[in-house]
Design brief:
This protein is of the alpha/beta class. Helices cover about 35% and strands about 20% of the residues. A seven-stranded mixed beta sheet has the order 3-2-1-4-5-11-10, sandwiched between helices. A four-stranded mixed beta sheet has the order 6-9-8-7. A hairpin with a 4-residue loop joins strand 7 and strand 8. Helix 3 crosses helix 4. The longest helix is centred in the first third of the chain and has 22 residues. It is globular, with a radius of gyration of 19 Å.
C-alpha cells in the first residue's frame, strides 16, 4: 500500500501535508524549549525527509561516507547540491577544525540559512549559491547546469559527493558536472554519487511492480523518466551509460556499484534508496 501512495496522492499534495505537520511540530518544540538550532525551520524543508529525520539522515550518510569512501577527519570536502545543510550538519560532528567543507546549491534561502546557522558556528564550513535554472526550485535562474563551472580552483578537494542530484539531471548536465568534479578533485580524490541505475535486475523488479511509481517507462533517447512532461522529476540511466559518463570524465568507478532499494530489491547492497557509485580521479597533479 505504501508503494502505491505516490500514485494516489500527487507530489505537491504530499509535500503540503508534510509541511503542515512540520510547522505544527516545530511550534510545539518551541513551546517546550527543545528546538535544535541546527535543524532548519519547516519552511526550508524543500527536499527529502522532514525535521524529525534531518539529523538522523545526515548522520546516516556521514557513516556511509566513512564506510564506503574512507572519508577522513582532516580532508577537504565538496557537497554538490548541499540543500539546506543536512550533510553539512552531520559532518560538523566528524570533520576536524583543520578540515574544510564547501557546499553549493540552487536554493538561495537554504544557503542563507546554512551561512547564518552553520558557518557562524563552524568557520571551516562554507556555502555558495549557484544561480542555476530549475523549473521546480529556481525558475528564475540565469545559468544552465550544462555550462556551470564550480566556483572552486582546480585540485581543491579530497572528496566530493552528490546525493539525489544526478537522479534529477539530463545527460548534458551530468557530463558537465562530472567534468567539473574531475577538475576540482585532487589526484586520487574520490567522488560518491547516487543514481537510479537500470540493469537487468532493476528492470525485472520494475516489470513485476516492485518499484511502485518509479517505473521509468518513458525512454527519452538514452535515458528513462517517470514523467515525460517533467523529465527531471526522476531520471534513470542504464549501467553501461553510467560507466560511459565516468570514462569520458576520466574517473574510475570502484566496483561494485552499491545497488539501493528504490526498485524494490529484497537485499539492497546499501541502506539507502538510490544506487551508490564511488569513483576516483585518475592522473597526476598539475604541480607534479
Amino acid at each position: 500500500m505504501r508503494q502505491d501512495l505516490p500514485r494516489v496522492i500527487p507530489a505537491r499534495a504530499r509535500f503540503a501535508l508534510r509541511r503542515g505537520y512540520e510547522v505544527v511540530s516545530e511550534q510545539w518544540e518551541r513551546v517546550r524549549g527543545r528546538k535544535d538550532p541546527l535543524v532548519p525551520p519547516a519552511g526550508l524543508m524543500f527536499v527529502g525527509g522532514g525535521r524529525r529525520d534531518f539529523r538522523p539522515l545526515g548522520e546516516k550518510w556521514v557513516a556511509t561516507f566513512i564506510r564506503v569512501a574512507n572519508l577522513e577527519r582532516h580532508e577537504q570536502v565538496l557537497d554538490v547540491g548541499c540543500g539546506v545543510g543536512r550533510m553539512a550538519v552531520g559532518l560538523t560532528g566528524y570533520l576536524s577544525p583543520s578540515a574544510r567543507y564547501e557546499g553549493f546549491d540552487i536554493v538561495s534561502k537554504g544557503i542563507e540559512w546554512c551561512r547564518r546557522e552553520i558557518s557562524t558556528r563552524f568557520p571551516n564550513f562554507g556555502f555558495q549559491h549557484a544561480d542555476l535554472y530549475n523549473h521546480e526550485y529556481n525558475p528564475s535562474g540565469r545559468l544552465q547546469a550544462s555550462e556551470y563551472r564550480f566556483p572552486y580552483p582546480d585540485e581543491s578537494f579530497d572528496f566530493a559527493f552528490m546525493t539525489s542530484v544526478f537522479t534529477h539531471m539530463l545527460p548534458a548536465d551530468i557530463r558537465n558536472y562530472l567534468g567539473e568534479v574531475h577538475r576540482v578533485l585532487k589526484p586520487g580524490g574520490r567522488c560518491l554519487i547516487t543514481w537510479f541505475v537500470l540493469n537487468p535486475e532493476a528492470r525485472e523488479l520494475i516489470a513485476s511492480g516492485r518499484a511502485g511509481a518509479r517505473n521509468f517507462e518513458h525512454d527519452l533517447g538514452g535515458y528513462w523518466v517517470v514523467d515525460p512532461d517533467q523529465p527531471e522529476a526522476a531520471v534513470a540511466y542504464t549501467e553501461p551509460t553510467v560507466h560511459q559518463f565516468y570514462r569520458e570524465a576520466n574517473l574510475a568507478i570502484q566496483d561494485p556499484i552499491l545497488y539501493g532499494a528504490w526498485c524494490g530489491r529484497p537485499k539492497p547492497l546499501t541502506g539507502h534508496s538510490q544506487d551508490i557509485v564511488l569513483a576516483t580521479k585518475r592522473g597526476l597533479s598539475k604541480a607534479a
